[in-house]
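[Meeting: bench + compute handoff]

Bench side (C.D.) handed over the final construct sequence. Compute side (W.E.) agreed to return the predicted structure before the next meeting so the bench team could plan truncations. Sequence as handed over:
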Amino acid sequence: MYPELVITVFLILSLFIVGALVIFSARHIKNINPDTLPELWRLYGVEILIVTAVLIPAYYGGVILMIVLLLFNLRAHVEIAHIHGYRHRTNIIATGILLSSVLIITVFYLSTAEQAISYLLSSIVLFISLVLFILVMKKCQTFLAALFPMLIIALSISSLLQINMMHDGFLLIIFLYLVTETNDAFAMIFGRLVGKTGLFPRISPKKTWEGMIAGVMTAMLAGLVYNHLVLNYTVSEASMIIGLIIISAILGDLVFSAYKRIYETKDFMTLIKGHGGIIDIYDSLLISSITFYFLIQLTGSSNSSHSIIFP
């Protein structure tokens, strides 16, 4: 693990340096808004905290990771309840946290991928049934609207726990998060600096085609380099997996942006200025983690105690 850890730290630091150099060089861009660069530096600096909040718990794994993810789950449900209004907050928070926490803790103690998948599927059915029951009893459509993010968050956290419990699980989470966050960060940087063509203006006004292309290219390159140095996928396999992670990350960002637009709010809540709430910060990871977990299963792994990467 030690050589791989050194390579991982070196690659992450290199990406941070590249991003900083891009922002630093942007002072030569003509007609750039004078407020853009200070804002970018502030947002980019916060990225260090955002990345650390994922990687350190993932490195220690086990109960520490589970506790951190449960705290994430708590905050996420508070944010979901927040955009639905005061009248429904208590019901949404109590129901969501109770059901998803049971799901997360149970998945944590399952030893095999087959058990986890079976439990996830049965839990989804139970989860939907209980929420629909509450919906009928209380005649409250808010529960139905809140069901989608509740399920996504529970499935995402369960997927991260299962990945972490695999052999070399920490390296797999690094791979997932490296691709996801690199895409997010460089799409933000280039979108703010040179973005002119809106991607989906009605859903996410700040997303641009220029930013998306830069983010995809940078994330693909970073993922391929990490795979070459640390993992053991073929170039074609790695390219496919990285591509699907990027697509699901972009989809996650857009889906949660669309969800917020329905309730006419910019952010779920404000946890970090400029980044929004915890769902706003990790919306891409919520979808990409689920995608990556099932991609791992498709590679032939059937037991979380055996390597799916190394021979």
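W.E. noted at the follow-up: Confidence is low (pLDDT under 50) at residues 301-311. C.D. will use this when planning the next construct.
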